[in-house]
């Protein structure tokens, strides 16, 4: 049977062969939060008190232990519904909980991180086709929302992680496009990097290089001016030495 595929971005779901477990099978909002948190931390154990605070961040119900056990029971049922009862479990012991999944399980957050790492390695090695494929996989996952309409420090930390992965993936796509004769696409990806993280200078550096490589030296210099102005007005800072170096290289060309 095919490996289990677990989606934590966009819709939360478990796919396993012909079985599909959707959010509505995860014991409501509390069950969804518990499942996602356990899946994110699947290589560790999570204390019952810690998980309880994730499920009820404001105030737990009167019979917390009963409600907590009911959620775990429904999550076990969801794993069974997905046909994972033999290879997956909610391991509860010593007031700790752990989600045990088959070793070949695929989780989108992990897949995105691995894909971007591989794309960057392929760029360095000159393996262009592999870089393009891996970067597209990582970017397509990183674009999806993470627990939309939910707010918590751990959720925001995952969103920050996804934004970082997306920026790195867009950089790989821009580099690939620029070196393969598609400057307009390279500009598009680099511009998206800047829109995503306007205070991160890597995007400006790449956009400057792309414009310069396409023969649009004036636009490359204007990009530097935009970067310098934003940093000065918003942060009271100047561009980094790396950004200055790209600027001077284009200026002297």
Question: How would you concisely characterize the structure shown here?
Answer:
The protein has about 250 residues and is an alpha+beta fold.
Report the mean per-residue pLDDT as an integer: 92
**What structural class results from the helix and strand content?**
alpha+beta
Kindly estimate the percentage of residues that lie in beta strands according to DSSP: 5-15%
- Please count the helical segments: 10
Number of strands: 7
Question: How many discrete domains?
Answer: 2
Strand order of the biggest β-sheet:
3-2-1-7
In helices, the fraction of residues equals 55-70%
- The N- to C-terminal Cα distance equals 58 Å
Q: Under CATH, the topology of the largest domain is which?
A: Serine Threonine Protein Phosphatase 5, Tetratricopeptide repeat
* CATH hierarchy, class of the largest domain: Mainly Alpha
What integer value in Å does the Rg equal? 23 Å
From the spread of the alpha carbons, the general shape counts as elongated
> Main sheet, how many strands, which sense, barrel?
4 strands, mixed
